[in-house]
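call fold target=GtrA family protein
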Amino acid sequence: MKEALLRQKQVLFFIIAGGLSAVVEIGSFKMFSTHLPQILYREQNFHGIHYPLSNILSTLCGIISNYFLSIWFVFERGKHSKRKEFLYFMAVSFVSTLLSLVFFQIFYSFVFKDNIDLIFYTLSPEMISKICAILLVSILNYSVKKKVIFNG
């Protein structure tokens, strides 16, 4: 019983940490995707890849914030040293970043074509695509980080 409650608490904290990291990632994506095209004219469409640098930089911001939130609030230290733990975390995050970029391209190119008006805010196709990509990848992240990096 105690183990089930601890697991639910951990999942809840993972969702909160992930949500905060997603806010960092989405906010930085909005900032980068608004300002980088003014400097790099190919940022909006680089050989068919939409907002590549904005995606990479915002994902990096999200990964770093998620790492610190994960070690502070979500997971207990595993059997690995801090350095090895960080390297594993970054390796998993690198793969997650690639998956996120692929999902973003699929959503942006084929699924979301119009803005979504939420009355108080309008979501552009690139923002909707980014949010959906984050949600898909977060499920994989929890499983791998819990089992491989933080052992348990």
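return ok
The longest strand covers residues 116-117. The chain has four helices and two strands.
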